[in-house]
């Protein structure tokens, strides 16, 4: 059956195919010979393409094993891909030209096969009988055999060329698919690099913020505690740095950490309201107000003390086209810088985001003034280096040109994550009074706007630090509880400091978790206190705090074996607590209370 189909095919080809002459075979043979060098060059290019692809794959694989990529790495790979793409385009053009010629050569081959079949049917005996002269017959037989061999060779060469063409075409198609995969891989690496940059900036911001927050606390302590030594300053800085969080919220909301059970009965933990400075807009309060139905204008008005006169929200303010940003040079204020600010989660209500966008724009313009450069971490405000998109970009667009002004100039629109229900003036915190900061009781009908019923900030009411934390202890956990004896020791240290401030140098923590320079032991403090003619605090039976109604803890009251319903200054106690407390336990704000288990 198969033989019959072949004979039928040959029959039709024999009928319809044109007759070939020897000069046509010679022409195609010469054409193939002339193309051999061209095809060899094409093959060299395809071989080089394979090598380029292999190198690109190795480089991408190598980059994937590294801990981090750099923009230079990505640029180099992108250049390789671009070069490979260009080579593929050139080869595709070459193959396109070859395709046209091959179509003609395939027709010639098919015709040649028919002609070869015809010739192969004529035997040497028939050729011998067809000629009267023996010499001419022999010549005819030799020519016949030669033409058959030549036809076979041409067919073989054409078949090889067609096969090579198909192989080359497949190689280029495979390379294109690999490049598509490479491009996707590059996109993933770029995305990872952006994340790495964001992580690095966050770490840098964290370091700057820790230093700033610790310095602020040291300054506060120095005003309350006389005679702090250099070692004590370092110790306090270490304690606050260990518990420092973002001063503002950042691009994602912080996770709430549950208060662990006390290992002591009774156990005592000091919990701060708000974090860290409570000046300007309370971000979690803005979140709570937006959830309660307030718009961004109402939010800004209450937090920045706007009166519609000297203090107001100015629309259509003539903002500059660009702003000088540290590490980025001059970039677009509206389309680049503001859209890359990471100070509030994009998932929050749009009205809160719009309030934040206006505050960020105002702060930036006030910071750079008439030619300054703004930093990109929390010393100023966090800039990611790329647009956030989404609802944040919408908030920036919808408030374009809106600036908080004081006497027609942009005001320094401070903001912090959590006020603990009460904001502070800049004079309260930095001794730098500004009329747009205020003492505000930030409450709605159901409590504080940053409290559990509204914004629910994890820092609204939090006990900070770990009793075993510190560079020389490093528990890595969270346990803010004190035993009764440890709390009594802090009160004794407070009493001794009141009697003789010259002894403050000995009142560092006795545990040595944050410094090799340990303070006096509990027994030494108690004995020195008695030596000075002052009673020790004795066993505590009750302790509680009071606040002044504006967000300050004014007193802490104690009932103990030796002191009945005795009150101590809340600010002074906070200062001694932050010096004497074990581990890295700290009271962050001037508004705090005590949890008793």
The percent range for helix content is: 40-55%
Secondary structure class reads alpha+beta
**Major sheet details:** 4 strands, antiparallel
H/I helix tally:
15
- How many angstroms separate the termini? 99 Å
Mean pLDDT: 81
Number of self-contained structural domains: 3
Give an account of the 3D structure:
It is a single chain. This protein has 597 residues and is α+β, with helices and mostly antiparallel strands. It has three domains: 10-202, Glutathione S-transferase Yfyf (Class Pi), Chain A, domain 2, CATH 1.20.1050; 226-273 and 463-596, no CATH class; 281-458, no CATH class. Helix content is 52%, strand content 10%. The protein is built from 15 helices and 16 strands. It has helices at 2-16, 22-65, 71-120, 124-129, 134-224, 230-243, 283-291, 296-303, 333-337, 350-368, 390-398, 426-430, 484-499, 522-531, 570-580, and strands at residues 267-273, 281-282, 311-314, 322-325, 329-332, 403-406, 409-410, 415-416, 443-444, 447-448, 461-462, 482-483, 540-547, 553-560, 566-569, 592-596. The strands form six sheets. Strands 1, 11, 12 and 16 form a four-stranded antiparallel β-sheet that branches. It has a three-stranded antiparallel β-sheet with strand order 3-6-7. Strands 13-14-15 form a three-stranded antiparallel β-sheet. A hairpin with a 2-residue loop joins strand 6 and strand 7 (409-410). Helix 5 crosses helix 6 (230-243) and helix 13 crosses helix 15. The termini are far apart.
């Amino acid at each position: 059956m198969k033989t019959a189909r072949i004979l039928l095919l040959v029959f039709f080809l024999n009928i319809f195919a044109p007759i070939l002459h020897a000069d046509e075979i010679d022409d195609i043979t010469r054409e193939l010979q002339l193309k051999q060098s061209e095809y060899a060059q094409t093959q060299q290019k395809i071989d080089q393409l394979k090598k380029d692809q292999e190198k690109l794959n190795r480089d991408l694989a190598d980059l994937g094993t590294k801990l981090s990529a750099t923009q230079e790495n990505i640029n180099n790979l992108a250049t390789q891909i671009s070069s490979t793409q260009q080579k593929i385009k050139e080869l595709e053009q070459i193959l396109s030209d070859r395709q046209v010629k091959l179509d003609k050569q395939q027709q010639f081959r098919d015709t040649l096969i028919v002609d070869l079949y015809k010739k192969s049917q004529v035997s040497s005996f028939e050729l011998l009988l067809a000629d009267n002269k023996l010499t001419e017959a022999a010549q005819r037989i030799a020519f016949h055999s030669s033409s058959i061999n030549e036809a076979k060779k041409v067919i073989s060469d054409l078949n090889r060329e067609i096969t090579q063409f198909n192989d080359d075409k497949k190689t280029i198609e495979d390379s294109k698919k690999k490049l598509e995969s490479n491009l996707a891989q590059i996109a993933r690496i770029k995305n990872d690099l952006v994340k790495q940059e964001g992580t690095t900036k966050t770490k840098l911001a964290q370091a700057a913020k820790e230093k700033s927050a610790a310095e602020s606390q040291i300054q506060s302590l120095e005003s309350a505690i006389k005679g702090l030594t250099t070692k004590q300053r370092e110790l306090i800085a270490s304690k606050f740095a260990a518990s420092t969080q973002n001063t503002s919220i950042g691009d994602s909301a912080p996770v709430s950490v549950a208060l662990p059970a006390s290992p002591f009965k009774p156990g005592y933990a000091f919990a701060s309201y708000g974090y860290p400075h409570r000046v300007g807009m309370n971000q979690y309060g803005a979140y709570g107000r937006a959830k309660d139905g307030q718009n961004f204008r109402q939010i800004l008005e209450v937090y920045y003390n706007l009166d519609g006169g000297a203090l107001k929200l100015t629309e259509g303010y003539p903002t500059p086209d660009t702003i000088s940003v540290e590490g980025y040079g001059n970039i677009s204020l509206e389309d680049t810088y503001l859209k890359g600010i990471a100070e509030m989660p994009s998932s929050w209500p749009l009205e809160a985001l719009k309030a934040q966008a206006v505050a960020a724009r105002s702060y930036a313009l006030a910071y750079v003034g008439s030619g300054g450069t703004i930093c990109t971490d929390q010393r100023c405000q966090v800039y990611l280096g790329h647009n956030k998109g989404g609802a944040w970009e919408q908030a920036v667009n919808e408030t374009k040109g809106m600036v908080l002004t004081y006497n027609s100039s942009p005001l320094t629109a401070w903001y912090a994550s959590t006020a603990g229900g009460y904001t502070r003036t800049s004079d309260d915190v930095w001794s730098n009074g500004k009329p747009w900061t205020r003492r505000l009781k930030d409450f709605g009908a159901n409590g504080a706007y940053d409290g559990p019923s509204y914004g629910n900030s994890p820092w609204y009411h939090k006990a900070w630090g770990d009793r075993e934390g510190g560079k020389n202890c490093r528990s890595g956990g969270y346990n803010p509880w004190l035993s009764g004896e440890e709390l009594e020791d802090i009160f004794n240290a407070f009493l001794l400091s009141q009697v003789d401030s010259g002894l403050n140098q000995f009142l560092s923590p006795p545990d040595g978790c944050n410094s090799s320079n340990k303070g006096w032991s509990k027994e030494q403090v108690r004995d020195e206190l008695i030596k000075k003619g002052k009673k020790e605090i004795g066993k505590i039976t009750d302790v509680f705090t009071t606040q002044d109604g504006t967000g300050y803890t004014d007193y802490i009251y104690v009932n103990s074996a030796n002191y009945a319903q005795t009150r101590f200054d809340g600010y002074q106690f906070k200062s001694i607590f932050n010096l004497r407390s074990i581990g890295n336990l700290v009271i962050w704000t001037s508004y705090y209370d005590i949890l008793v288990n």
